[in-house]
Each structure stands twice: as structure tokens, then as C-alpha cells.
Design goal:
By secondary structure, this protein is of the alpha/beta class. The protein folds into two domains: about 5-175, HUPs (Rossmann fold), CATH 3.40.50; about 205-325, TPP-binding domain (Rossmann fold, 3-Layer(aba) Sandwich), CATH 3.40.50.1220. It contains eight helices and 17 strands. The chain has helices at about 20-35, 75-90, 100-115, 220-230, 240-245, 275-280, 295-300, 310-325; strands at about 5-10, 10, 15, 35-45, 60-65, 95, 115-120, 125, 130-135, 140-145, 150-155, 170-175, 205-210, 235, 265-270, 285-290, 305. The strands form four sheets. The protein has a seven-stranded parallel beta sheet. It has a five-stranded parallel beta sheet with strand order 14-13-15-16-17. Strands 8-9-10 form a three-stranded antiparallel beta sheet. Helix 2 crosses helix 3 (about 100-115) and helix 4 runs parallel beside helix 8. The longest helix is centred in the first third of the chain and has 17 residues, at about 20-35. The radius of gyration is 21 Å and the shape is globular.
Length: about 325
């Protein structure tokens, strides 16, 4: 019997998140195996008008929970909405992104539905059941996990899967019936950072600094390199740099920070502790800059530069500026 796939689509500033298009592509590949369609859930304020775009990436139907009361993320609202959508669609699987919202919402829904759940998956396929691959032991190994049951849930790592080529279709958009208001707490305000750079989990290029930065002011050098590379680049930090007060926790990459998978990851003055590698080892290309030629990061890097980062990083920025000038 044909079974549908349901995804939790995310949005910001009136646009669907790029990684939700990735998720739609994954769901479509699964639905092609299950013989069903892809459904999506959008929750927020003013989201009805942006839902149809998901049709370009394989989504057939978009269920929206649209209210000014839901302008800010609220775990209770999202859990109520996604659980309701799952019961209405009766999908074989519910997928989300391993973002802050996805990792907060899907485990709650899994518990409510009594369903199996896997987090931070780097592969997903259908073999009479959902089979995902996910890292274990701080990314040292990966394992295939088979999820069985009437419905199963999983989140996928951003930037790990390609965004499918956009088609010309438009998804059918409809309101999801139900009561979703939060009763336990309300989010009154969201204080956003002043950077217009992409979030670490979405950035195509990340320049990260470690303890060798020595002070917070030195991160200006990394920001100058990111600026020279272009608008798809941003700056991260190791836990050692964050614990030393050189950078805020929002910039932390690693096991206790954010897990990233950019096209290019430049590690400046980062030794390569396993906790840091756990958060960035799936980067497509890794460039390490370190004075210590024995630093563990070099064993994982595609390219390594042994030397003073305060000389090398500005030189890289200069070269990127030349490339843009040509």
C-alpha cells in the first residue's frame, strides 16, 4: 500500500530555508519508493503564501498553521501541529532537519506518537522500511539504522544532501485543522544577532578560529577573510576559543556546539580535538592552518598549511580579493 512522507519545513524572513528544499528532495526519493506523495508542514505567521514554492522540489501538499500568534518558534505549538499533521496524513515517515527547531520538535513528536526516532542522519533510503545512516562516537564511525513501525521520525544534517533541481510545479496549500496554541509558556521576544551572515548550519564556507586566536579582537582577521570570500561565508569557533571568551557560544562548532557540513571549512589555529571534529568532519573540503605540524587536524584535512595563521589568513584574504577583482 502506498505511503506518504511528511516533512517539517522551516522558514525565515518570509522565505523557505534552503535545507528544507534539501529535505524535500530526500522525501521525494523516499516517496518514489513507497508509492506515495510528499506532504509538508509550515508553521508561523504569514506562511500561507510561501508554501506553494515547495512544489518545485517535489512536495505535493503543504499543510499550514498560520497565525500572528505563531510568529516566534514555540516547541509546544510545533509539537502540537506536527503530531496533528502526522495523524492526518498517516505517513510512513516524518522528516525534519537537524536544526535547532528540528532537534527540538521531532523527539517530542516521536514520544507523543510512540514512534522510533533517529537524529542527525547523513543518508536515508527506503528498503521496505526507513534505513538511515548516522554518526556515532563523536563521528568516529557511522552505522546504518533501520526504523520500523507504523510511522518513524528522523532528522537530517543540513548541507549533506543536494538541493534538487527546481521544477515548475506548485504544491497544493491548505490549512491544517486543529488547535495548536501553547498553554504552558509563550515566547514574547526573539533577540537576533546583528550579523547578516548565514547561520553556521547553512553556510557554504566557514572560517573557524581556535585557542591560538589569543583574544576576541583577533577574530577580526577571520571576519575579513570571510568578507573577502563572499556572502556565503561566515565565521565559527572551537570550544577552546569560546571557553576562553574569544567568541560567543552561538559561533561554536563541535560536539557541544553546532554540527556543520559546509563546502569549505577553514580551521585556523584549531588543534583538532575529537569534540571539534565531531561537528565538522562531514565538511566537503577541510583546510587546516596551524603552527604545529603534528596537530591532529592535519590528519583530517584535505589541505594543510603549517605556519602562523596571523600571516596566512590575511594572505588568503588578499588572494580572494584578487580573484573577485579579475
Amino acid at each position: 500500500m502506498a505511503k506518504d512522507i511528511l516533512i517539517l519545513a522551516e522558514h525565515a524572513n518570509g522565505k523557505i530555508k534552503k535545507y528544507s528544499f534539501e529535505l524535500a528532495g530526500i522525501a521525494k526519493s523516499l516517496a518514489d519508493k513507497t508509492g506515495g506523495q510528499v506532504h509538508a508542514l509550515l508553521v508561523g505567521s504569514g506562511v500561507t503564501g510561501i508554501g506553494a514554492e515547495l512544489g518545485k522540489y517535489g512536495v505535493a501538499k503543504v499543510h499550514v498553521v498560520d497565525s500572528a500568534d505563531f510568529a516566534n518558534y514555540n516547541a509546544e505549538v510545533y509539537t502540537n501541529a506536527l503530531a496533528t499533521a502526522a495523524k492526518a496524513v498517516s505517513p510512513a515517515a516524518v522528516l525534519g532537519t537537524a536544526s535547532a527547531i528540528g532537534k527540538d520538535t521531532l523527539p517530542r513528536v516521536a514520544a507523543r506518537l510512540g514512534a522510533g526516532y533517529a537524529n542527525d542522519c547523513i543518508d536515508a533510503k527506503w528498503e521496505s522500511a526507513l534505513v538511515v545512516r548516522r554518526p556515532f562516537y563523536a563521528g568516529k564511525v557511522t552505522a546504518a539504522v533501520t526504523l520500523t513501525g507504523e510511522v518513524v521520525l528522523a532528522t537530517t544534517r543540513p548541507n549533506t544532501f543536494p538541493v534538487p533541481a527546481a521544477g515548475s510545479g506548485a504544491a497544493e496549500v491548505m490549512a491544517l485543522a486543529g488547535t495548536f496554541a501553547a498553554t504552558k509558556y509563550k515566547v514574547k521576544e526573539v533577540v537576533k544577532g546583528d550579523s547578516d551572515r548565514p547561520d553556521l548550519t547553512e553556510a557554504e564556507i566557514i572560517v573557524s578560529g581556535g585557542r591560538a586566536m589569543k583574544e576576541s579582537a583577533a577574530f577580526k582577521t577571520l571576519w575579513e577573510l570571510a568578507d573577502a570570500i563572499g556572502p556565503t561565508a561566515t565565521v565559527g569557533a572551537s570550544r577552546a576559543a569560546v571557553d576562553s571568551g574569544y567568541a560567543p557560544h552561538a559561533m561554536q562548532v563541535g560536539q557541544t556546539g553546532k554540527t556543520v557540513s559546509p563546502k569549505l571549512y577553514i580551521a585556523a589555529g584549531i588543534s583538532g580535538a575529537i569534540q571539534h571534529l565531531a561537528g565538522m568532519r562531514t565538511s566537503k573540503v577541510i583546510v587546516a592552518i596551524n603552527k604545529d605540524k603534528e596537530a591532529p587536524i592535519f590528519s583530517k584535512a584535505d589541505y594543510g598549511i603549517v605556519g602562523d595563521l596571523f600571516a596566512i589568513v590575511p594572505a588568503l584574504a588578499k588572494e580572494f580579493k584578487k580573484l573577485h577583482a579579475e
